[in-house]
Write a structure and sequence with these properties.
Radius of gyration: 23 Å
Shape: elongated
Strand content: 15-25%
Helix content: 25-40%
CATH topology of the largest domain: Rossmann fold
Number of domains: 2
Length: about 350
């Protein structure tokens, strides 16, 4: 796993492969990076321990590994959580209770953490065949030319619960809208390929991982990678920075709003979907000052509503709705804009 700057790094020690795997999965779900995962004997072979912010240790019999405790205590200043409970089978009630206990212990040492969607939750989403009925493109909207740079760009910001919400939103849009999307999703970088496959399965708007030099075109949904910050040059081409996103989670939705808004101005808008934390709340007023529209997913339909609620609390959100309602509102907004343009052209003729 790639260690991302700003994210806490944990070391995992267990004498069973299964427990190491489950601890690493749970840690990744909370946005943590694993700097070491191995058995006690492997760690004892390190004269200099890997740099981590916290050690998680779970052993079948601690009495069999006294040398491990001495080695850790003598060679690291990072806190050590001994006796982490063995993880039950994922999906069971016992597992969710164990996960909550683990999160509480982690937050006592590392501060507030944001839960991320897991690989399992994305695979479950991929297995679903339900697809909302996609409406026809309204008569007053001329079908957009594919591959032409989009006049309007909408940022889709999301975290926990976001993939399901964004998928429903995209599946509920008609083909041919004259817009492009930039998608900023807090997620473990290991699951980017799964996310791309899930969200590109049914929708007319196919998910594509950002590439340097790419422009946002009609019908695009460009997924910003989590590792490094991305900006836009004067021509609207995507540029990958050498530095990581600011803050503990990538992509930073606040930074995406600032970077994209700086280029597109009032032609840049944003929808904030389900997620923990408050990412997006700082930059929302800046984007609003451009004259941009900022919408949020309603609390009742969110897996976690902290993020859209925090953006709504800024007073910048002009519309709130379910993912399907947000899609319908977007179509309605574009249709009204097309009608207004048509009226202006007739009046000037």
């Amino acid at each position: 796993m790639i260690a991302l700057e700003g994210r806490p790094v944990v070391g995992i020690v267990s004498d069973t492969v299964l427990q190491r795997h489950r601890l690493q999965q749970a840690s990744g779900k909370f946005g943590l990076t694993t700097g070491f995962s191995g058995n006690p004997e492997r760690l004892l072979g390190y004269p200099v321990l890997p740099e981590v912010q916290l050690w998680l240790v779970t052993l079948e019999d601690e009495a069999d590994h006294l040398a491990l405790f001495d080695h850790l205590l003598e060679n690291t200043e990072a806190p050590i959580l001994f006796g982490v409970d063995p993880a039950p089978k994922p999906g069971s009630k016992e597992y969710f209770r164990w996960e909550r206990r683990l999160l509480n212990k982690l937050e006592q040492q590392l501060g507030s953490l944001e839960e991320l969607d897991s690989g399992d939750s994305l695979e479950e989403l991929a297995a679903e065949d339900l697809q909302p009925a996609s409406p026809d493109l309204p008569h007053w909207i001329s079908p957009a030319v594919p591959g032409r740079p989009a006049e309007q760009v909408w940022i889709l910001g999301a975290s926990l619960g976001g993939p399901a919400a964004v998928k429903t939103f995209l599946d509920s849009l008609p083909a041919g809208l004259p817009v492009g999307f930039i998608y900023a999703q807090h997620i473990d970088g290991n699951f980017t390929d799964v996310l791309t496959r899930v969200l590109g399965r049914h929708a007319h708007y196919r998910l594509t991982r950002a590439q340097p030099g790419m422009k946002v075109c009609n019908g695009d949904v460009i997924l910003l990678p989590v590792e490094h910050e991305w900006t836009l040059d004067d021509d609207g081409k995507l540029v990958e920075s050498a530095t990581p996103w600011p803050g503990p989670y990538g992509p930073s939705i606040d930074q995406v709003l600032l970077n994209v808004g700086d280029h597109y101005g009032s032609r840049c808008h944003a929808i904030v979907f389900s997620g923990m934390g408050n990412d997006g709340a700082i930059a929302a007023p800046v984007l609003r000052a451009y004259g941009s529209k900022i919408w949020v997913q309603d609390s009742a339909s969110c897996g976690n509503s902290s993020m859209p609620d925090s953006v709504a609390d800024t007073g910048c959100a002009s519309y709130t709705g379910t993912p399907v309602q947000l899609a319908h509102e977007l179509v309605k907004t574009i249709e009204e804009s097309c009608l207004l343009q048509g009226k202006q052209q007739r009046d000037s003729a």
